[in-house]
Amino acid sequence: MKQLTFDVAVIGGGPAGLAAALAAKEQGATRVLIIERNLELGGILQQCIHHGFGLHRFKQELTGPEYAQRFIDMVCRTDIEVMLETMVLEITNQKQIYAINQTQGMMQIDAKAIILAMGCRERTRGALRIPGTRPAGVFTAGAAQRFVNIDGYIPGKRAVILGSGDIGLIMARRFTLEGAEVKAVVEILPYAAGLTRNVVQCLDDYGIPLILQSTITCIHGKERIEGVTIAQVDQDWNPIAGTERDISCDTLLLSVGLIPENELSSQVGIQLDPVTNGPAVDSNLMTSIPGIFACGNVLHVHDLVDFVSQEAETAGCAAAAWASEKQYSSTRIIASTGKPGPCCPTSDSIPFDGVANECCATWGSTQIIIKPGNNIRYVVPQRICPDKKTTLYLRVRKPDQDVSINVGELKRMKHTFIRPSEMIKINLTPELLARHQSDYLDIHVVKEMVHHD
Amino acid sequence: MIKTVICTVCPLSCEVELTISATNEIEKIMHNRCPRGKSYATTEHIAPRRTLTTTVHIEGAIHSMLPVRTYEPIPKELLHQVMQETANINVTSPIKMGDIIVRDILGTGVNLIATRSM
Fold it and tell me: What are the tens digits of pLDDT across the range A339-365?
């Protein structure tokens, strides 16, 4: 079996992997590798031909391929090695990667640091357990997006879309422009799951109805889907009897959520956060296994690629630092004392129990456990190093307005609107965190008193 | 008259409020959080424009479709006509990102450009 060694090995060549590899390289990692399963770099961006990417990053509205191409061009100007059409089968906690491709066969790649950037997968009909027959014509929205934008054929003429996630909304417009009829977008929540701008420019512009607080209760058709039954739901999301109606269609697209792809991560025993379905990480985006980092949609599902790139750069820099000889020796010294820092918190929240200690030991600093409070669904990273500049990425549970998000007693950030679909970013500095005494940092939403004229 | 325009320039999705006079003039623009919201809402009231992104056929490349877009937004009512125009386009690899696929499409003064190299 072929054996290779790298400082930093990145699994996945999408936006997260590209930005992470570039950052690791810039940070001084000598040998950097990107392993990509597809036949080209760019990941899902290559099929996201719509515009709206890069406003934060490049201060202009780019399409997915344009955003990807910029990073691909940057990677091409470096000596970062890229393996395409290569599948990673397994990673070990000794940071060995077993991968395979048609030209080199089976390989063992030893890396000083590994960055997980495998992205996410779409939830399917099976995950929803929609009753009815099992005809052809039921696709995830992303699969349909690939058929239309990459392969050049449209999978149906009359579509119903279940779920108002961004991909579903984008595909409603794409189907319409390509001459298909989109009968309705059906959403179980009382509000759209995707970004408001996508509701406006993908549905409102084309007069496509958005049916809220409703779901599909049955799929009809034998060989090919012939229609669906939709019904309104109560506050517990149960269909309300008597509200059913049929919509005929030859295609059903599902845009019902994305799941971080953590098969490799869980196989090697990386601790996952049950809310994000991604690894629990620290300020360096290091997972529970020292030297393995995670970024992008494998860590938590993002709505903006700009944030993915930024997050990936954090992981890339940290991985490069970890891979450098200096980091290695200091790690060994700390590890050899066998003791974590003096005030190392252990979490009483079950999933991360014990992780903080290990990370304190490996990075040589004590950590603060982040506690998602009122109306906060999750916060990434789950534990932070107070001596590091840290960006918190968080999502709220339900929409609200005129609120502030409190970071313990440290920071109070006012928001006119908060929506589950829009990730919120908070920057914390070591100076600010030095004022924090507790081992826990509570993040919560409080209502602001607003006087309307 | 008060008219609300949801700005689509960025994910903030500002709900911009326009005060429209009896002669259909904009008297006041409120609730936009940046200048782009102001210009978007103004255009949206006078003559809405959209950037069109779609694909054209490509020969000799790794995929069969090449993604393209209008370099700038075009009048909204022309979107379907441009789609019909692009349906019959067939280009040959290699194409570089930014290459002009159709110059001045439908007399809009806007070029249709490739959004990736292939």
Answer: 333 223 333 333 333 344 444 445 555
Q: Which residues of A touch B7 (CB under 8 A)?
A: 197
Using a CB-CB cut-off of 8 Å, the residues of chain A touching B77 are none
pLDDT at A325: 61
Q: Which is the CATH superfamily of the domain at A1-121+258-323?
A: FAD/NAD(P)-binding domain (3.50.50.60)
3-class secondary-structure state, position A254? strand
Please indicate whether the domains covering A1-121+258-323 and A124-256 agree at the CATH topology level.
yes
Q: What is the CATH number of domain A124-256?
A: 3.50.50.60
Closest CA to A24 of A37, A12, A35, A9: A9
Asked if A170 and A145 count as a contact pair (C-beta separation under 8 A), the reply is yes
Whether the ipTM is more than 0.90: the answer is: yes
| A76 and chain B in contact, CB less than 8 A | no
Per-residue pLDDT, averaged over A21-45, amounts to 97
What is the CA A19 to chain-centroid distance, rounded? 14
* Residue spans per domain, chain A: 1-121+258-323, 124-256, 340-453
C-alpha separations of B29 from A24, B22, B44, B49 in Å: 46, 16, 12, 19
Q: Å from A113 to nearest chain B CA?
A: 32
In this predicted structure, the answer to whether residue A330 has a pLDDT above a threshold of 90 is no
Domain boundaries, position B42: 2-46
pLDDT in tens, A287-316: 999 999 999 999 999 989 999 999 999 999
